[in-house]
From TrEMBL:
Designated name of the protein: Lipid A-modifier LpxR family protein
Domain of life: Bacteria
Lineage: Bacteria, Pseudomonadati, Bacteroidota, Flavobacteriia, Flavobacteriales
Length: 299
């Protein structure tokens, strides 16, 4: 281990004080590991993050994020072509997202812009059929009565406030994070509460909110709960101005979300495993759960 001795001070790991300003993350969501194959069936995301040396509001406290991702949504009965058997439409979404965030003390402000396409143009049906043939070795979903193509733009704004209740080596933090979404894909208000337990950095450089800066070791878990007040969900209800798809369903206006995360940062490597469950998103659907697996490399 590289150490630095100065004036009799305790040795310091050089890597722990090195600033990292870039990160590349690959994330995969899938409900297959929960032994289901329905609703939010899978998601694949590639994300690049950069810590700005000189930002709009202050230096060293702002981050940019760029992401490309594909999401796949299917009904619970993926073998039937009868529309009467489907509790939600088949639909995929392919999008690009650009985000900006600013942190000050224990406060975090984020804003994201999302542009994408839903429907056959997303490539979701072809990708899922290939995935099933290659990895699952089972008959893929039939993708009948798929939602029509549509183009979407959305803005997401969130504000997080965090409180530290106890310090390391086993710290406890509590936070509240209201989020607002407006656009053609999503319109909702979503307050979320989170508690984290374990060894972690302050909010400004912790991977709990995907912050860059140090490579200090972190290992902690989080519990979260939130309630989404939904005005429109285009991946269930179709285009907000009217949709000619064969099947659309009305979204429930109140949806509960719960989650568990385990996160570990070791040097430039970030590991994340998560579990999510939500209440039914429409009248005919059931509760749903899925797993998050992510690896990120800082540089």
């Amino acid at each position: 281990m590289n150490t630095l001795f100065a004036n009799g001070q305790i040795p310091v790991d050089k890597d722990s004080v090195k600033i990292v300003r870039h990160q590349l993350e690959l994330r995969h969501d899938n409900d297959f590991l929960t032994f289901t194959d329905r609703y939010y069936s899978s998601g694949l995301f590639l994300t690049y993050r950069q810590l700005l040396k000189k930002g709009i509001l202050s230096s060293g406290k702002e981050q940019l994020q760029f992401s490309v991702g594909q999401e796949i949504y299917t009904p619970s009965d993926i073998k039937s072509r009868d529309i009467a058997d489907l509790d939600r439409p088949y639909v995929g979404f392919l999008g690009i997202q650009a985000g900006w965030s600013h942190i000050k003390n224990s406060n975090l402000l984020e804003a994201d812009l999302l542009f994408g396409v839903a429907g056959p143009a997303s490539g979701a049906s072809g990708f899922q059929k290939w995935y099933h043939h290659t990895f699952v070795v089972s008959d893929p979903p039939v993708w009948g009565n798929q939602m029509e193509n549509s183009v979407h733009a959305n803005i997401y704004v969130s504000y997080l406030k965090e409180w530290r209740l106890s310090p390391n080596p086993f710290s406890v933090h509590m936070s509240i994070k209201p989020q607002f979404a407006f656009g053609t894909r999503d319109i909702y208000v979503y307050p979320e509460f989170m508690a984290t337990f374990g060894r972690r950095d302050p909010l400004s450089s912790s991977m709990t909110q995907n912050r860059l800066g140090t490579m200090d070791r972190e290992i902690f878990f989080s519990l979260m709960a939130g309630h989404r007040f939904v005005h429109h969900n285009a991946l269930l209800e179709g285009k907000i101005w009217g949709d000619d798809s064969v099947l659309v369903v009305e979204a429930d206006r109140n949806v509960w979300y719960f989650g568990f995360d385990f996160k570990h940062r070791f040097g430039k490597n970030n590991y994340w495993a998560g579990y999510r469950i939500n209440s039914p998103e429409s009248q005919r659907t059931q509760a749903h759960k899925y797993i998050i697996l992510s690896y990120a490399r800082s540089f």
